[in-house]
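User: Please predict the structure of the protein below. I'd like the answer in structure-token form so I can feed it into my own downstream comparison script.

Assistant: Understood. Taking the following sequence of 266 residues as input:
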Amino acid sequence: MKSFARILFFSGLSLAGLYACQKELSDVPKSHQNSQPHALTLSSSSVKKGQALLVSLPAGLTDNSANWVVRPATGTQITPAGQSATITFSNSGTYYITAIYITDSVSGIEDSATAPVTVSDSSYTGAADSLTLAGEKFVLVAQLVPDTGSTLVDTGITFVIQTVDSYPCNAYVAITQNSLPRSDSVTLSSVVLNTGNACAGVTVPAENSFTINHLAVGSTSTITIFLPDGEGVFQFTVTATSTLYTFSPVSGSAGMVTINPLQIPN
């Protein structure tokens, strides 16, 4: 009699487990319940409450109309952008993010990708995060400063410095011009990420700019860029003629900074 009761007990557990499994699957469309889920790409595996999380489809997928689902859904906000989405959480805990997308536009076959994320009990303050620039390469683009006609501001040359790598679209390179307002030396320190606005997956080179004073015709000035994280120093000269400014690298870390173009009209 005891053996029969034990069989009924374990049979009840099995049925309960089967019901739970079926309940979990009911949140996922039948067209891809049997598929093997791929892993989503997350900007971080853990975030704070209110901190934006950038989620992207796995590499190689090109679907532009993914449907984004978060479980549990309470306290979450999803901003979809085709192959990516920005998600914020109001409550702490472990969440599972799923993207449902079309693998065959003709037949309408769907698949899904999923990933977990942990939300801590701390609240995000919105302060910008900084990334190291160790090993980063740069492109230097020269532009003439427009003459505003003001006697208080001398015209000069502005150098836009861009990273070769891409970052979220609101990132910028932190620059210190070592003696304001227009020193001939600058220091690069970090990439600053305003992570409160993740730009829904858009990435571009981070950039910033600095300006040097106008050069008299026939003169040459040496510009020094102190690279971040002990990467060394890059120097180049600016030579002015009546028609051209010419930029010539003279020393420094090889391959770390590229000047393009090497001449602009004066």
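That's the full token string. The two ends are 102 Å apart (CA to CA).
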